[in-house]
Design goal:
Elements lengths: L8 H42 L17 E9 L16 E11 L4 E6 L5 E3 L6 E3 L2 H9 L4 H13 L5 E6 H10 L3 E5 L3 E3 L2 E3 L2 E5 L1 H9 L8 H19 L8 H9 L2 E3 L3 H11 L6 E3 L5 E5 L9 E5 L2 H14 L14 H4 L4 E3 L1
Parallel strand pairs: 1-6, 3-12
Antiparallel strand pairs: 1-2, 2-3, 4-5, 6-11, 7-10, 8-9, 13-14, 13-15
């Protein structure tokens, strides 16, 4: 005869609760796995749209936590609908250039804005031009060559390797700010631009407001330099917001924002490694300022009475070279190892300075 053991209501409830917890755990694991599969699938689809190869870019082993350099390119280009008539073959130009170097071993990051009107010797071209022409000249030579030409120009200017680039047009910038849920920055002075007023103090920015905020130049007492400071401030805010947990649930919006408006030579695996191994370095971010002087320079054949440029001295170029070579753990170089270029040896015809 089989004896049955009486189970008290309390024991029965504990058993039910235990089973419920197990089932809940299984569901949570399954849901997480399903979510990760979706993220991975969407990431792969996005990668196909945005990744382009830059054969000459110096390779770096991210698994060994080597220092890296990234060139951010903010592209000012006409929307597809507006590329008609004389603008049918509009290539666009880099309105914003920002150099970022990350050293995971020291957990530090350096960021420097490069004035778009900086007068430099462009890679793969003769003579001196504004640095934002590097992208345009590269694209004119071959579609997709713009980022590589911009990377090489900055590399030759500062004598450092440029490992990666991230190119995004202004629509993508606006969409990305919206995708991370907007950002909050501290505004130094009140100004109005594009119908938006930005008061002094903490200001919340959605995509459209953020775009207007970083593009304003003429109302800024510091002109282009002030605009660069605001751009860096917004970039820092986006990076901080992108590292937050809430963005994980908005991954679809982020992928949509970058998929249609961004190009890079970072693969999905490299992006993941940057997110996991290099992220702590972003907490210690240092702004590096490029000291330049403004000048109106009379070019051969110029009928405008001179073009506006920013100029950088040889001494300033050497100072920045040493800063970034040191941060990338490269051997320092004595200034005597460098030769002044023709721009630095003989002053061009300066109309005003």
């Amino acid at each position: 005869m089989e004896l049955k053991r009486d189970v008290s209501p309390k024991q029965r409830w504990k058993k039910i609760l235990y089973i419920a917890l197990i089932i809940s755990g299984i569901i949570l694991v399954a849901a997480t796995a399903f979510f990760l599969v979706l993220v991975y699938k969407d990431a792969r689809e996005t990668e196909k749209k945005i990744v382009i190869d830059v054969p000459d870019a110096p390779e770096v082993d991210l698994s060994k936590l080597k220092p890296i350099s990234i060139l951010l390119l903010g592209l000012d280009e006409r929307p597809e609908a507006e590329r008609v008539g004389q603008f049918e073959n509009d290539i666009g130009r880099t309105d914003t250039m920002v150099l970022i170097t990350i050293d995971p071993k020291s957990s530090t990051t350096k960021m420097m804005s490069i004035p778009r009107d900086l007068r430099v010797s462009l890679a793969q071209s003769e003579g001196f031009q504004k640095i934002n022409s590097a992208y345009t000249f590269g694209e004119a030579e071959k579609q997709g060559q713009g980022p590589a030409n911009a990377m090489k120009t900055v590399s030759e200017l500062l004598d450092i390797p440029i490992n990666y680039f991230v190119e995004m047009n202004f629509q993508g910038f606006s969409d990305l700010v919206d995708a991370v849920g907007g950002i909050t920055i501290y505004n130094e002075f009140e100004f109005t631009t594009d119908g938006y007023t930005f008061p002094v103090g903490d200001v919340y920015l959605d995509g459209e407001h953020a775009l207007a905020y970083v593009r304003m130049r003429h109302e800024d007492p510091e002109g282009e330099i002030g605009r660069q400071k605001r751009q860096r401030k917004v970039i820092e805010a986006i990076l901080a917001k992108a590292n937050g947990v809430t963005v994980v649930t908005r991954y679809k919006e982020v992928f949509d924002a970058v998929g249609a408006n961004m190009k890079t030579n970072l693969t999905f695996e490299e992006m993941y490694k940057l997110k996991t191994a290099y992220q702590p370095s972003l907490a210690s971010l240092e702004d590096v300022t490029m000291n330049v002087t403004s000048a109106k320079i009379d070019e051969p054949g110029d009928s405008y009475g001179g073009l506006d440029y920013y100029r950088m001295s040889f001494e300033e170029r050497m100072r920045l070279t040493q800063i970034f070579r040191n941060h990338l753990q490269l051997d320092p170089k004595d200034p005597s190892q460098y030769e002044m270029n023709t721009e630095e040896l003989s002053n061009p015809t300066i109309v005003s300075e």
